[in-house]
Specification:
Elements lengths: L1 H14 L6 E16 L2 E14 L3 E16 L2 E16 L1
Antiparallel strand pairs: 1-2, 2-3, 3-4
């Protein structure tokens, strides 16, 4: 069974293309604001860089910063969330 699966995977890989075309890059910014008031709200900004592959697929790193605050019955709380990641986008 192991030899049959290996043979099938080798046959499929003979027809696969390992070459990828690089069709430029893009830089993007995302802004988000919801319910911004003295009772609370959230605001975030995200930055993205994309390498465009094969005109229909983009991949790249991203970074996001989010600020949230709350004033519930006089108790004030707030926090920040930030982090990076990798994203892929099909067009």
């Amino acid at each position: 069974m192991k030899k049959i699966i290996t043979s099938i995977l080798i046959c499929i890989s003979l027809f696969a293309s390992g070459q990828v075309q690089f069709n430029g890059s893009e830089i993007g910014v995302e802004l988000h604001a919801a319910s911004v008031s003295n009772y609370g709200g959230t605001f975030s900004v995200g930055f993205k860089y994309a390498a465009i592959l094969n005109k229909h697929f983009a991949v790249g790193p991203s970074f996001r910063l989010q600020r949230t605050w709350n004033n519930n019955l006089g108790v004030k709380t707030n926090f920040n969330i930030f982090g990076g990641g990798i994203y892929a986008h099909a067009r």
